[in-house]
Amino acid sequence: MRASDSSSTESGTGGGRRRSKDTRDAILAAARERFAADGYERATIRAIAKDAGIDPSMVMRYYGNKEGLFAAAVSIDLSMPDPGSLLRQDVGRTLVAHFLGMWEENEVLTALLRVGVTNHAGAERMQSVFRDQLIPVAREVCPDPEQAPARAALGAAQLLGLALTRYVLRFPATVALSREEIVAWLAPTVQRYLTAPSP
């Protein structure tokens, strides 16, 4: 069934809202897969619409252009732990375990990483996600809150480097590591970046 025809048995305003939501969901799902597979530059509105089973004009109606669609498709809530609830001595382990869970359960992050390494819009989106959601955690646990952006950036370098080699480039040795091994190796480094005295 085409996305635009879904819930066709429903009528009235409620049915219209349902069909609109189904269509949007189909567009976003297709966009995430297409951006992940082709990158931002090669992905087209026409291809995304075809994947979603709708007319390209519907994509433009809901999202305006490819940039608007990309922003909507890669809107990400990292579901970060409440900074106030984190034990300072466990923050590295907590964050590495949290991000591993996010990467392995949320294909949007992988799509964003693929696009971000080759496209300015993708890079800006990735920057905003980490700026808005990781820096507050760093600010809560680091010795000097003014250093929070730098410390968060160093932590992100470790987390994104892992994600790039495990989920995008798929280095065999990185893919072969268990989650427990990754936490054991990476957590002390992230912990040091966030909580150790300045060098």
Q: Overall mean pLDDT score?
A: 86
State the distance separating the first and last CA atoms: 60 Å
Overall helicity: over 70%
Tally of alpha and pi helices: 11
What proportion of the residues form beta strands (DSSP E)? under 5%
Unreliable spans are 1-12
Q: Rg to the nearest angstrom?
A: 20 Å
Please provide the count of β strands: 0
Content-based structural category: mainly alpha
Please give the largest β-sheet.
none
User: Assembly type of the shown chains?
Assistant: single chain
Overall 3D shape = elongated
Order of helices and strands: HHHHHHHHHHH
When the domains are counted, the total is: 2
How would you summarize this macromolecular structure in one to three sentences?
The chain is mainly α. The chain has helices at residues 12-42, 45-52, 56-63, 66-73, 91-105, 107-116, 120-133, 135-141, 148-168, 172-176, 179-195.
What does this 3D model show about the protein?
- The protein is mostly helical and 199 residues long.
- The chain folds into 2 domains: 71 residues, Homeodomain-like (Arc Repressor Mutant, subunit A), CATH 1.10.10; 113 residues, no CATH class.
- It is 72% helix and 0% strand.
- It is built from 11 helices and no strands.
- The radius of gyration is 20 Å and the shape is elongated.
- The N and C termini lie far apart (60 Å).
